[in-house]
Write a structure and sequence with these properties.
Layout lengths: L24 E6 L2 E6 L9 E5 L2 H15 L3 E7 L2 E7 L5 E6 L6 E5 L7 E3 L2 H15 L3 E5 L5 E6 L7 E2 L2 E2 L3 H6 L22 H8 L4 E7 L4 E7 L5 E7 L7 H17 L8 E5 L5 E5 L3 E2 H4 L5 H20 L12 E6 L2 E6 L4 H8 L22 H15 L10 H7 L14 H9 L11 H12 L2
């Protein structure tokens, strides 16, 4: 009997054609550029895929490549010996070693797929080959199950078995380079003691962005954190950063990056808030001109003419966005920043859908007094922007939102007409028709475009 004719041993593992192995990706700083390359034990001599002028652009390119080409993860270094953030491909997050219910065989299979790497009737072999697959394909977690289908233990990827602190995953490149090969049957290493000391998101941000001084916490609840700080040129910056706990959620990170990219595209416009800088560590962030304050902080000191001029300026920002194809999902008075330009106060619009995009990526239903009725049904039409501008102009005219922000808000937006502005404040009666038309529940009853709304507003309050 020749070797090819021997009877197969049923205890030996069987496998199908494995997928191609792709290395982890890493983003490293090289002079004035950011390099996206294949991770190679930290030696920085892996294959280079692209070079970028901005770190955020490199991160976006890395995430696209990771998803499109099946790379297991993406590492973003913030120093030669420290990884600040890691993003994992969802297909490589969980590898399972469990017993099949029908055949009784042990299988090594990704949670995100149905095709096993190996099948064997011996549990100890399944565990051994599970460790091998985790190492060779860089799965984030290996889950080992008992014959009763109870998870016995989880083995983390080697990257995760190094120091972990509040600012991200850290490990020493030299120790990895010199480390012996992992024994596939060995017990997982324990967590190393945290020697870096406690950190906070604010201190991590201050350490990562040298242009910031005297950083103050404004809000550290929910998916977006907000700060205020001095900027390198003597100005004041407002900063929005993604909650670090959300950095391993690919759809949320993508939503943040896309919104910031859209905002940066039009940030040179006079009525769009200037973006100072953006980055991705310790979590994705954007810093922008805080101006002299937000609209709610200053509105009581503004006369009606100035307030309605601000409405026209924000409408001009919307028109610029449409010209560049930048989506805008809403507007809020808190996102209107007042700046000083050419000796007078001027309104600029910030955020540019950032909050809404992140909420949608988290499947968090969001409604505020400036939400258009059709948005409650996850819809958007050409005249949705007219509603947003009408709602903001209503606030500017009356110092009140079109509807009270209470438990009945969604129903009121879908069903009711706001009270005429002239019944809420001392404004021209003709302003009622303009703003109530812009706020019509049925989009077809609104102004057909932003330009016609601006013309109608100008005819009431003057140029």
């Amino acid at each position: 009997m020749t070797p090819d004719e021997r009877v197969p041993d049923p205890s030996e593992p069987t496998t199908v054609e494995p997928p191609p192995e792709r290395p982890p990706l890493e983003i490293v700083e090289g002079g004035a550029h950011w390099v996206l390359e294949a991770y190679n034990l930290g030696r920085r001599d892996g294959e280079t895929y692209s070079i970028h002028d901005r770190q955020m652009a490199a991160l976006r390119a890395g995430k696209r490549r990771m998803d499109a080409h099946g790379h297991p993860c993406l590492l973003r270094w913030d120093s030669p010996d420290s990884v600040r953030t890691m993003y994992w491909n969802p297909d490589f997050e969980h590898l399972l070693v469990r017993q099949g219910r029908l055949t009784g065989d042990w299988v090594i299979v990704p949670e995100a797929g149905s095709v096993p790497f190996y099948t064997t009737d011996r549990r100890e072999l399944a565990v051994q080959y599970g460790r091998t697959v985790q190492r060779e394909y860089d799965f984030k977690h290996l889950h080992l199950y008992t014959p009763s289908d109870t998870e016995r233990r989880t083995i983390d990827h080697r990257f995760l078995r190094h120091d972990i602190d509040a600012s991200g995953v850290r490990f020493d490149r030299d120790s990895l380079r010199d480390a012996p090969a992992t024994d596939p049957t060995a017990e997982p290493e324990g967590e190393a003691e945290d020697v870096a000391g406690p950190t906070t998101p604010a201190s991590a941000l201050a350490a990562a962005v040298p242009d910031l001084t005297d950083i103050e916490v404004v809000l550290t609840e929910g998916p977006l954190y907000r700060y205020r700080a001095g900027w390198t040129d003597g100005g004041t910056a407002a900063i929005v950063a993604l909650n670090p706990d959300r950095c391993d959620e690919s759809t949320v990170v993508d939503a943040f990056l896309d919104a910031v990219e859209d905002w940066s595209t039009i940030a040179d416009n006079d009525y769009v808030t200037t973006v100072y800088d953006d980055g991705v560590g310790p979590s994705p962030w954007v810093a922008y001109d805080a101006g002299v304050g937000s609209l709610p902080e200053l509105i009581d000191d503004l006369d009606l003419t100035t307030r309605l001029r601000f409405a026209d300026e924000i409408a001009a920002a919307y028109e610029t966005a449409l010209l560049y194809g930048v989506p805008r999902r809403g507007v809020s008075p808190s996102n209107v920043r007042i700046v000083t330009s050419r000796g007078q106060q001027q309104a600029t619009l910030s955020d540019w859908g950032l909050s809404t995009a992140v909420d949608r990526a988290l499947d968090r239903p969001w409604v505020d007094p400036y939400t258009a009725p059709e948005q409650l049904a996850a819809d958007r039409v050409n005249r949705t922007a007219v509603y947003h501008l009408g709602a903001l102009a209503y606030y500017l005219a009356t110092r009140r939102a079109p509807f009270p922000d209470d438990d009945t808000l969604s129903e009121r937006i879908q069903r009711d007409t706001p009270s005429p502005p002239s019944s809420m404040a001392t404004v021209p009666d003709d302003l009622d028709d303009v703003l109530l038309r812009a706020l019509a529940t049925d989009p077809t009853d609104r102004f057909p475009q932003i330009e016609s709304f601006r013309d109608a507003l100008s005819s009431v309050v003057g140029p």
